[in-house]
C-alpha cells in the first residue's frame, strides 16, 4: 500500500494548481508529502483548454501566459462599441498545455510531490484518512492511503438547482492572411451574432498578434449545439461579422460549463474534499473558474502547512452567489434581455470595477450601485420568486 499525506485526484487546472502550491517549501512549516494522480491518456484526461482571468501586477503563472491585455471591448448588437481600460488589472490568457508544462517543470524540482499516472476507481473514508483505489498505467490494482484527499474530477451529475444554464462554446485558433486583429484589445463580448430563441450568444476574440487570435462562439442556453451547429456559428462569426477573409484554422476547442445556483459541496467525507469546478470554483453568472481555483488552492495549501483542517473555502462570497442566482433566474425566465442587460452594465460601470465585482472584490455599496444599472423590475421579480422555487435535478444532455 502506498501512503502519503495528501492525494490530489485529477491533473486539470485545480489539481495542478494545488500540487504546485504544495510543492513550495514555506520557512518553518511542515511540507506535506503529496501524490498527484493523473488519468492516463484517453477520455478521463481533460481536453486542451484555454483559461482566462484577471489580476493586477505580476502573477504566479505569468511564464505560461499566451497573452494579456489591459484594454477590453464589448460590442452591442448594433451601435458603438464599449471600450475600457482595466489598468492596473490585466486580462490574462493561459492555455492548458502551457500551464501543465510550467507546473510539471516546477514539480520536477520538488521531491515532496510525486506524480502518478493512474485511473482512480473509488475514494473512501477510513479512520484517520481515506483510501484511494486505483489502477496504475499497467492496469494493476493499487491502494493509496492518504490523510487528506482533494478530488478535482468533474461531477457525474449536477446537484439539484433552481436554475441551471449551460455556457457552451466552440473556438478556432486562426491565422489570417491579412492583419485582421488589434493585439492590444480583447473582444470580451460581441453580440453582433444571431441570438438563440432562448438564452443569449456572443462572439469572443483574444488576439495574440495582428494575424493570429482565438475566435470563439459562446452561448448561454439549456442544450449544447451539434458539431455542425458550432462549426456554422463560428464560421458565420468569422466570415460575416469579423470579415477576416482568408484564414487557416490552427486548432479548435470546445467546452461546456454549467452555470447553476446549485450548492456545490466541498466536503464529501471526513478526509475527502472537492476542489475546482466540482467544489464550486466556477462563478455561476460568468463561467470563469481559474481565479476561484487559485483562491481555493491557496487557502488549502496554507491550512495544510499550518496543521489546520484543510476544508476548501467558498471560491465566491455568499452575496455574489445570491446575486448570481437572481441573474440566472432573470435570464432563464426571459424577463431580462441578456445582451441589453450586459451591455448596459459595461456602458455605465467602469470596466475595472465591473471585473472586480465579478471577482467578488467589491463592497456592498458598490454592489448596490452596480445592481441599480440592471433592469430593476425583472431582477426584483426574479429575486422574490427564488425562495419558492423547488430545486430540481438537471437533465444533462
From TrEMBL:
Enzymatic class: isomerase
Enzyme Commission number, as recorded: 5.5.1.19
Entries under InterPro entries matching the protein: FAD/NAD-bd_sf
Pfam families reported in the protein's UniProt record: Lycopene_cycl (PF05834)
A single MF term (Gene Ontology): isomerase activity
Presence of keyword Isomerase: yes
Keywords: Isomerase
The protein's name: Lycopene beta-cyclase
Amino acid at each position: 500500500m502506498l501512503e502519503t499525506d495528501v492525494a490530489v485526484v485529477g491533473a486539470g487546472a485545480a489539481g495542478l494548481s494545488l500540487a504546485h502550491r504544495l510543492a513550495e517549501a514555506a520557512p518553518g512549516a511542515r511540507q506535506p508529502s503529496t501524490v498527484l494522480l493523473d488519468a492516463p491518456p484517453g477520455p478521463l484526461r481533460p481536453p486542451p483548454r484555454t483559461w482566462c482571468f484577471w489580476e493586477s501586477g505580476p502573477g504566479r503563472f505569468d511564464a505560461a501566459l499566451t497573452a494579456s491585455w489591459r484594454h477590453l471591448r464589448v460590442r452591442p448588437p448594433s451601435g458603438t462599441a464599449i471600450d475600457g481600460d482595466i489598468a492596473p488589472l490585466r486580462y490574462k490568457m493561459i492555455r492548458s498545455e502551457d500551464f501543465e508544462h510550467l507546473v510539471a517543470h516546477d514539480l520536477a524540482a520538488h521531491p515532496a510531490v510525486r506524480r502518478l499516472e493512474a485511473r482512480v476507481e473509488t475514494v473512501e473514508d477510513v479512520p484517520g484518512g481515506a483510501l484511494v483505489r486505483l489502477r496504475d498505467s499497467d492496469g494493476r490494482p493499487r491502494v493509496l492511503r492518504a490523510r487528506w484527499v482533494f478530488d478535482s474530477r468533474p461531477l457525474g451529475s449536477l446537484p439539484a438547482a433552481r436554475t441551471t444554464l449551460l455556457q457552451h462554446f466552440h473556438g478556432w485558433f486562426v491565422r489570417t492572411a491579412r492583419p485582421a486583429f488589434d493585439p492590444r484589445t480583447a473582444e470580451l463580448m460581441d453580440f453582433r451574432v444571431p441570438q438563440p430563441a432562448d438564452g443569449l450568444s456572443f462572439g469572443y476574440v483574444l488576439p495574440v498578434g495582428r494575424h493570429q487570435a482565438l475566435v470563439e462562439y459562446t452561448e448561454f442556453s439549456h442544450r449544447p449545439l451539434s458539431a455542425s451547429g458550432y462549426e456554422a456559428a463560428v464560421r458565420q462569426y468569422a466570415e460575416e461579422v469579423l470579415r477576416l477573409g482568408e484564414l487557416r484554422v490552427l486548432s479548435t476547442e470546445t467546452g461546456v460549463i454549467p452555470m447553476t445556483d446549485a450548492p456545490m459541496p466541498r466536503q464529501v467525507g471526513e478526509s475527502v474534499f472537492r476542489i475546482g469546478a466540482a467544489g464550486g470554483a466556477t462563478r455561476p453568472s460568468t463561467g470563469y473558474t481559474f481565479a476561484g481555483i487559485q483562491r481555493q488552492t491557496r487557502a488549502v495549501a496554507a491550512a495544510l502547512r499550518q496543521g489546520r483542517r484543510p476544508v476548501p473555502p467558498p471560491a465566491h462570497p455568499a452575496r455574489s452567489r445570491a446575486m448570481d442566482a437572481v441573474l440566472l433566474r432573470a435570464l432563464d425566465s426571459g424577463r431580462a434581455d441578456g445582451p441589453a442587460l450586459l451591455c448596459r452594465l459595461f456602458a455605465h460601470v467602469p470596466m475595472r470595477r465591473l471585473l472586480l465585482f465579478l471577482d467578488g472584490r467589491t463592497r456592498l455599496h458598490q454592489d448596490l450601485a452596480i445592481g441599480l444599472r440592471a433592469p430593476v423590475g425583472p431582477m426584483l421579480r426574479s429575486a422574490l420568486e427564488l425562495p419558492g422555487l423547488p430545486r430540481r435535478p438537471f437533465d444533462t444532455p
